[in-house]
Amino acid sequence: MKKKAYLGIDIGSISTKGVIINDRNDFLAECYLWTEGNPTKATKEVLHSLQEQFDGQEYEIVSSGTTGSARKLVGSMIGAQVVKNEITAHAVGTTTLHPEVRTILEIGGQDSKIICVENGVAVDYAMNTLCAAGTGAFLSSQAHRLGVEVEEFGEIALKAEKAAPIAARCTVFAESDLVHKLQVGCPKEEIIAGLCKAVAGNYLNNVAKGKKIVPPVVFQGGVSKNAGVVKMFEEELGMPVMVDEKGHLMGAFGIAVLAKESQDEREFSFDVADMEFKTREVTCGKCANHCEIICVYREGKLIDSWGNRCDNGAIRNQ
Amino acid sequence: MEIRIDDKKKIAFPRFNHYGYPIRYIVEQGLEAQFIQLPPATKETTDLGSRYSPDYACAPFKHTLGSLIEAVEAGADILVETGGLCRLDYYGELQKEIIRELGYKCEFINLAEYMGGKKKEWLKLAKHVNPKLNPAKLATGVYEGVRMAEYIDEIEALYFKNAGFEAEKGSYKKVYRQFLLKMQIAENKNEIKDAYQTAKQEMNELKQIIPENPVRIGVVGEYFTVMDEHSNQFLQEKLVDLGASVYRFMNVTNCHFRAKETALRPKIREYVQYNMGPTTTWTVNSALDYAKRGFDGIIHVKSFGCTPEMDAIPVLQNISKDYHIPVLYLSYDMQDSDTGLDTRLEAFYDMLERKKKVIR
């Protein structure tokens, strides 16, 4: 008999991540690529890449899960057993790999969150509310302005002797501060170090406000790959900040663990990666609320729909 | 042309959760005027409200303005807006101006002008609305209308407390909706009481399956947004769908008829020494109460930019630290997408449930 394996896919605003694990939580296959605004296409590419790394002779996938902002769409696409939010997935993933962790900091492309952990389980969390200040999107737009690749940010920041003070609270203020610093002739690396400091400061003042940060601390999300921000966090917090080399896959890993825990087993086939999926938005006309109902079609056949606020708008499978 | 001086005046209030029903009762049975019962709010209501509101006014202003405009369109002669203890006191005046500038020719009664005034003034106002007013009937109508509000609050609390555990999906909702329908058309006190008793009995007889780790969540926050379902995007309904038992102390009964601010404040004196604003005492008191009773989590609801509730947040953070209870802070403006809210609520519920599994 083949050994059991579990698939997890995390479809974020910027990147799509996929992993396959076995029942001892070892990584059997992993993939990370850009979503590029097309979650269906990105998922198919992830599945193709996973299929190549995956040993279909020894293992078979018995359960799958999706998370991230396109979890619902991709969930009905691949017929996932578990469709869960990214906060739960990250908490589960990190506490499985690092049971001793007490605080998880996470900064992604458009959101940032903090998760407090006790005895290996999340006990409190907070997420940024209305604006994307101090997230990956802010850093990459500023990198563009400075003519530097965002991937090089960390290295450059570490070279700076000191960080230029940049207002952290609001992206618009930060930007005008930055322009001012450039015009008075501040060296570029000091400005980049200042930006990294601003991201860390903004995070601690907004998202983490009122939360107690206890070591060991793990830092995740795309921004955790930026060594400059990691250094600033360590300085501000006065404690070591751990960055896992698999930190960017933690959501996908967590949802795979949840799929394993669900014990809901069903055959999974990589064939979905070659099927055609279409989504259509329908405006419901049954009342003045005009709900937008999203219908998902597989090979021209309706498989799922959501978005209606009341039963009047429910679309029934014929 | 026929002149009908006998015609009853048509009165409209802004929508406010289910409290339109008791208000209708008071208007029709007490004042003997006609009440404009608006259908449930839709996206169009909020669009109307935001279009004609100053951008920085809080969400309740926009919701109520949208309701009032829809009410005039539906043929109201008199619009009524209430006063309050925060910026709300000024809102009636502003909405009156906005509606006049839009060219609507209806009367606008701003209750803020009468608040704290003498009874004589109120009676004069009632007589103005209905010159043939019977004061004795008005008193009975008000009394019975208040009872109706109390019954609605009680049944609503029962519904949100238990519906998450129902054995048959939708069974609680059915009873609850039947009850609300009866409140919408009740014409005397017996009808109100019968409907209340039936609903309560039927709800108590419904079967429940209590899960291994039941999650209890207390909802606290700003007066209008926390009570009005449309404003908080059916927050409590969503929590019930996730399977939680949901409590909310803040309702009209507890806020106006039972708990007085001065009576509540001594209970929270460890955290608050003076009155911090319109409903902040209620918010802090119920949050502290939930924490002491061992609830799993608290959700704090406010409209974006609500200063009194913003002041309550540091106090809630202290309670959260002292009693080890997580608090989720939600701030509402006029967004129409539910996705962000759904993600946060699901994560909050999952966290509380998993925590219970591991720790207890």
Task: Describe the structure in brief.
The complex is a heterodimer of chains A (318) and B (360). Chain A is an alpha/beta fold and 318 residues long.
Characterization of this structure:
The complex is a heterodimer of chains A (318) and B (360). Chain A is an alpha/beta fold and 318 residues long. Helices cover 34% and strands 26% of the residues of chain A. Chain A contains nine helices and 13 strands. In chain A, the strands form three sheets. A five-stranded mixed beta sheet of chain A has the order 3-2-1-4-5, sandwiched between helices. Chain A has a five-stranded mixed beta sheet with strand order 8-7-6-9-10, with helices on both faces. In chain A, strand 9 (217-220), helix 8 and strand 10 form a beta-alpha-beta unit. In chain A, helix 5 (153-159) packs across helix 7. The radius of gyration of chain A is 21 Å and the shape is globular. The mean pLDDT of chain A is 84. By secondary structure, chain B is α/β, with parallel strands linked by helices. Chain B has three domains: 10-133, Rossmann fold, CATH 3.40.50; 143-210; 211-360, Rossmann fold, CATH 3.40.50. Helix content of chain B is 55%, strand content 10%. Chain B contains 15 helices and eight strands. Chain B has helices at residues 20-31, 43-52, 59-73, 88-101, 119-129, 135-162, 171-185, 189-205, 223-227, 235-242, 252-258, 261-264, 280-292, 307-323, 339-359; strands spanning 10-12, 34-35, 78-81, 107-110, 216-221, 245-247, 297-303, 327-332. In chain B, the strands form two sheets. Chain B has a four-stranded parallel beta sheet, sandwiched between helices. In chain B, strands 6-5-7-8 form a four-stranded parallel beta sheet, sandwiched between helices. In chain B, helix 14 links the parallel strand 7 (297-303) and strand 8 (327-332). In chain B, helix 2 (43-52) crosses helix 3 (59-73) and helix 6 packs antiparallel against helix 7. The radius of gyration of chain B is 21 Å and the shape is globular. The termini of chain B are far apart. The mean pLDDT of chain B is 89. Chain A binds chain B through residues 69, 84-88, 91-92, 118-127, 129-130, 210, 212, 287-290, 309, and chain B through 42-44, 234, 304, 313-314, 317, 320-321, 324, 326, 329, 331, 333, 339, 342-344, 346-348, 350-351, 354-355, 357-359.
